[in-house]
Fold each of these.
Amino acid sequence: MKISFLLHHAYGIGGTITTTFNLAQALAERHEVEIVSALRHRERPTLTLDPKVALRPLVDMRHEKEHPLHLRPARVFPEAEYRHRQYSELTDQRIGEYLASTDADVVIGTRPGLNVHLALQAPEHVLRVGQEHLSLDNHPPRLRSALRRAYRRLDVLTTVTEGDAAAYRRRMRLPGVLVEALPNSVPDPVLPASDGTAKVVVAAGRLAPVKRYDVLIEAFALVAAERPDWRLRIYGNGEEHARLRGLIDRLGLHENVFLMGAAAPMEAEWVKGSIGVSASDFEAFGMTIVEAMRCGLPVVSTDCPHGPGEIIQDGVDGRLVPVGDRAALGAALLELIHDDELRRRMGRTALENARRFAPLPIVEHAERLMDEAMTARRTGRPRAPEAGRIRNVLVSQGFAARDTAYTLASRALHTVRRGRR
């Protein structure tokens, strides 16, 4: 089976890039796999990609930033989508051409705007799988409306948590679409797990407001007051760096809290610690939580929607505390810091429990979903909307009548060409 991932860009270190690389590389052990990057802005990916996975970009921003079509706003990629400004008529054209000509059996979209392209433009022989890496509640109402219309043409929609899958089933009304949770996977560790003896707490992720590193730093002030021998290392870059540096200085924590910058891969940094921590207001999944647990660290996390509560068993392999509660976060950290045996026992349990996020079980789950969807197609599940409904969807997304006609004609021409092969 040939499987193609349609990715925003493959050249950074974000969570969606990481999990796409992880799943693609695991699937490549059994299938032909490629990653199609809508955008490219550097020569090589930051993350290492297995040579078995083909990578090809569609628009190279190093050379095509001033392309006339790139100066015009996108028409297919939804205007309400967060990344809309980075898309254009040029990306519309290149993505449409890629989908019309693909020989993949399965195409997997990895963000809402790309899922819309996939739903509206993929030829009929392609199994359409849309991935959601953010929760439904995280999308603005206008985007939810656009997705509700387009997503009805998908075969499969996956979310990263059971809670979000339930929300999509209940609120989006997607008849005939298989909606199921498919957690992110984390590769098997190559380094020995942490032994829980280092006096180091580790956090990782973008230095962005939603991650609430300010709450974490303030909570660690409580830790440092009782246990000044412990350190907090925060890995990541972002717009909050200067503000967080100022907070560390104001609290007098320059010998206890360190902004370490980005690290890739993170495994070598996790194993140097004894406790992982996350203070986020929101985590669609919680990739860093799983990474820490796979390295033998118990994780203290806010119990934010939806991911942490589906990953951590409170009191078993980590701790869950209320969102925004500095005192509770500090107290949970101190509980593990003060009790060496509890910390090490939770770390061993975290290592064992996190095996469910290893590549093999996630790949088997993904294959089962694709097989189930293909079987549903063969046995006559409700078909995708016909041309009249496609036209309505496109017009509702802002297409002029001539653009709609062109899109439908292109799809019809591609169908004819396929029939002549």
Amino acid sequence: MAAEHWLASAHPNPAEVRAAWTASGLALLPLGTLLSAVRLPGELVLALTGGTAPSPHVDEALGEVLEGGPVICDPRGRRYYALVPASMPATWHVAAAEWRADEVDCLGRYCYLGVPRLDLTALDPDTYASYWSVPMASAASLCAPLGVARLIAAALHQLGRQREE
């Protein structure tokens, strides 16, 4: 409940968030105040984890690499979103600019993220709805920026090796 309350409080009207979660399982939250997100293309995540599509194996590997930091998977968009401190887009702007060439982006102020209900923690093959690849363990528990940067570097290295083969 504390994590749900914390996430909902990112929105100017937390009741709207709860209503959206009840109605559709997904709510749009503004980024840049309580949290931000790093958008990772599925190709990078799968290259690092050895997966071919979103799966429990990929989710488990992400959890290990990011030490339990929360990650949302959008299987339709073939993207993952690592939730990070709100300051990351500003403090990592140089690295973030370089990452854009690889379709990685730091999303902060003026961006919104579709955040699933906290109980949606597995891929639903019938709907391919967004879900928590790595669930949020507690309120304000986010991915460490350095851990996300290391994941990106390792994934880019692995993807480059795969392309050479």
